[in-house]
Amino acid sequence: MSSERQAADAAVDWELVIGLEGHCQLKTRSKIFCGCATSFGDAPNRNTCPVCLGLPGALPVLNAHAVELATRASLALGCTVHNTSVFARKNYFYPDLPKGYQISQYELPFSENGFLEIALPQGPRRIGIHRIHLEEDAGKLLHAIGSEVLGHSLADYNRAGTPLIEIVSEADLRSSEEAYQYLVTLKSILQYVGVSNCDMEKGEMRCDANVSIRPPGRAALGTRAEIKNLNSFRNVKDALDYEFRRQSELVDGGGSVVQETRLFDAERGVTLSMRSKEEAHDYRYFPDPDLVPLRADPDLVERLKAETPELPAERRTRFTRQYGLTDYDAMVLTAERALADYYESAVEAGGPNSAKTLAHWVGSDLLGRLNAAKIGIMDSPVSPRRLGELARLLEDGTLSSKLAKEVLAKMWETGSAPKELVEELGMTQVTDEGRVAGWVEAAMAENAQAVADLKAGKEAAIGRLVGSVMKKSAGKANPALIQKLIRARL
Ligand code: ADP
Ligand code: MG
Ligand code: ZN
User: Fold this and answer.
1) 300 & 314 share domain
2) What domain range is 383 assigned to?
3) What is the helix (H) or strand (E) element at residue 139, kind and residue range?
4) Average pLDDT, stretch 204-215?
5) Which ligand neighbours the alpha carbon of 279 most closely?
6) Which of 210, 218, 257 best tests ligand 1's pocket when mutated (most atoms within 8 Å of CB)?
7) Ligand 1 binding pocket includes 19 (Cβ within 6 Å)
8) Ligand 1 lined by 17 (C-beta under 6 Å)
9) 212 lines ligand 1 (CB under 6 A)
């Protein structure tokens, strides 16, 4: 069997099984066990102290805000927050880890047994969350700068001690697309509850993927490879597709998957063996004697539960109900909390009848411009109130939809109010019957065939006539009036 043939058959012969470990930075101002700042982009080693540098005698003190955020995340993901969780030392040597161990949680994690729901074309699917634990991040090694310019590596400990939650999924994901949706959903939920921005480019979210294959219908899991170094959602998807093919071809060819850690090489699009997978006992986990067990405060948990905001899935459903949007539009608009807030402010300014128009403008026109300019919705030069005003001008007939889009383009460039632009540019729609009738008559005279088609019942022909009038009026004739006048002349 050729290898192409095997690759094509792989999806039929093997079931892909994926479990993800996501590390997300909590939005605290200071580190998890000391008062150093967590700000991004500061001069190297500026935000360090004896605690996060692991100097002898320094003692960690747990950041209460980190606990609060871990609680919010756990509740949003349906996890049970344990009354007691225990910090443990995960021991290994690497120069980015000044203490020689990472403070994490092992036997008694912060919370467990949750889920999140991913939206798939065939409907929603629940993915189990196995556990969430609190831990600190390591520092950062600057090999590239070091080795190219200096002949040795540099270490920046600004990140060391940054609070993270590790979110371990169940091995419930069955395709790279599901893994992608899981990450998008996780990011969206954590943003909604204000726990993490999950910006992968800033290192605020990292992900490891555990991958195995098995014959469909078999319950036992196959041997897994763990893929590291996945620093974008796109890379996760590509690495999983590659790894599925690699494992399928390997087993089809008579080989077997070995348990190992692999690295994704994004440039070549392949995973490469890094080391045989470490086992838990390699880390010599033990409870950290410097930290007392963490007791959950039931009042805090109850208060935070009550404060859990509307989550993306609920908001999506509400958008379809309240504004009559399609599932797709509602999904686009609710993926990011700030975007959904923007949309709702725009509808408030534009009135409920403008909800669909605004969904279209925000979800395609504006989002397209924002993406092209690489800016977020918060920095949009068009405010939601002004977008709402523009929708009103469309609704009261001042503007045709074509003119409204032109005004929107000008609003983007100038940041001006739509009313001012309409006056300035003389863009007001022409609703004067006499003027429109002049264009209609000219258009009908020039398009005898379209007129004949329309008379013969070919309704589509009216489009050609309307188009011709629009051209003559530079897009300013009122479309409803054009139609009315054409029909009156048939
Ligand atoms: P560790 O990576 O520390 O050994 P776990 O054993 O808890 O941790 O597993 C981590 C992740 O790997 C989880 O998301 C789990 O669902 C997933 N996983 C475990 N075994 C497999 C497997 N055979 N195939 C795919 N994913 C797996
Ligand atoms: Mg792991
Ligand atoms: Zn510090």
Assistant:
1) no
2) 310-425
3) none
4) 95
5) 1
6) 210
7) yes
8) yes
9) yes
